[in-house]
Specification:
5 helices, two-stranded parallel ribbon, about 5% strand, mainly alpha, about 55% helix, globular
């Protein structure tokens, strides 16, 4: 249960519009030139999945937020070519 709360907290911080105290313009500027992002979600413990949180849900939420920022989601092959352009969750 504690791990579930830690993961949920990390997601809130990761996905927050005000993450790291940046304005929307500053966030956009730091992503300028980015061709896309490969989203990689670590396997979750069985206990977390029994609580109802799945890696598919996390991936879907992260990808949706990235798409809303007009950033392309890369597939595995594209992500390997674009070294460093990944979100590891």
């Amino acid at each position: 249960m504690i791990r579930l709360l830690l993961i949920a907290g990390a997601l809130i911080i990761f996905c927050s519009d005000a993450a790291f105290g940046q304005t929307r313009e500053e966030q956009t500027a730091t992503l300028r030139g980015l061709k896309g992002i490969l989203v990689v979600v670590e396997d979750l413990d069985a206990e977390i999945e029994r609580e109802g949180l799945t890696s598919v849900q996390i991936r879907t939420d992260a990808e949706l937020r990235i798409r809303k920022a007009s950033i392309q989601i890369l597939n595995l092959k594209e992500g390997i070519k674009a070294r460093g352009s990944h979100a590891y969750i």
